[in-house]
Amino acid sequence: MASVKIPDTKVQELKAICQKFRNDGSELINVLHGAQELFGYLPPEVQEIVADELNVSLAHVYGVVTFYSFFSMLPKGKHPISICMGTACYVRGAEKVLDEFKKLLKVKVGETTPDGKYSLSCLRCVGACGLAPVVTIGERVYGRVAAGDVKKILGEY
Length: 157
Hints:
11% strand, metal ion binding, NAD-reducing hydrogenase subunit HoxE, homeobox, Glutaredoxin, oxidoreductase activity, four-stranded mixed β-sheet, 7 helices, single chain
């Protein structure tokens, strides 16, 4: 992964997020949420600053970032797409929906389109099992999605 140069103004904003939580290592998850909101993702350079500011090991920060699926070490697209692969969604055809997104966007799960418009990921459960299969694009939730609906959904963006 290429090194990311973080502008000094963003470094100061990140340090302010850490200070908001009293530079307390037990607030790591809250700090990481704020950092991801600020940067859109959590590259190693951001993780290093957080580790230094909270006085925790970089390995600990990395462990938290890689454990929780909400956190991303790669930049997300302008319109992040997530397909639920929980049991209800899976048995109702989520895999076919995912395959259609991959085919139309020409990306694999975890990738972002070259134009930066879309990124594709899977979730374990959205909590809307009655609407299975479920797709989210940003904050918008689409329920009862079939593979044939994917092109129309993408057309909205």
